[in-house]
Amino acid sequence: IGHLQLAFPVDTFMQVNPPVAHRLYKTVLEWAELTGEEIALDLYCGTGPIALYLAGRAKLVVGIDENIRAVNTAKENARRNGYHNCRFFAGDVAEKIKEVSAPLSRLDLCVVNPPRKGLSPEAFTTLNAMKIPRVIYVSCDPETLARDLDRLCQGGYTLRRVQPLDMFPQTEQVETVALLTGGERKSV
Question: How far is CA 59 from CA 35, 49, 55, 107, 177, in A?
């Protein structure tokens, strides 16, 4: 997809429309506005395509996913594409956010690409409390996206941009990217 050579084992998630997936990843990268000094978090990273797009312009990218096979594949994909500034962790997203962010001096960006059910209440609470300055939310479900964006905005974030992408032509399904900015940068 794009410049990346990626493996997607059969029991892991992948976008089924590579040209639109490429546009999606490019949109995330553009909206991230990375300068090379940022530390980014990729929640529900799957096999790592978004993390790897960010890795080309970030200081460090940390990916978290609940599927251990996807995380192991993300590590392989990082090696395959020559990215050494990515770290991937498997486990409950809400718990791992706290664990992996504790030793970091700061987080500048968080990309969230949850399953159709959206953010779990625990993951939402943890993410919202961290007040990461820039959040990019990728969703395949407009209802859970609206719910989670509303909760993030009530928590102090401001919705800046929304871009739908027709991942599944001639269906009502849509993939959506949303950019939020929020609170002051805090050490974690």
Answer: 9, 17, 7, 11, 23
Residue 124, CB-side half-sphere exposure with 13 Å CA sphere: 18
Note the pLDDT tens digit of each residue in 74-107: 999 999 999 999 999 999 999 999 898 888 889 9
State the pTM of this model: 0.90
CA-CA distance, 188 to 55, in Å (whole number)? 21
The tokens for 42 are 């990729």
> Catalytic annotation on 153?
no
Q: What is the pLDDT of residues 37-77, one digit of tens each?
A: 999 999 999 999 999 999 999 999 999 999 999 999 999 99
First to last CA, the chain: 33
| Spatial distance between the Cα atoms of 45 and 55, rounded to a whole number of angstroms | 13
Catalytic residue from among 45, 86, 140, 153? 140
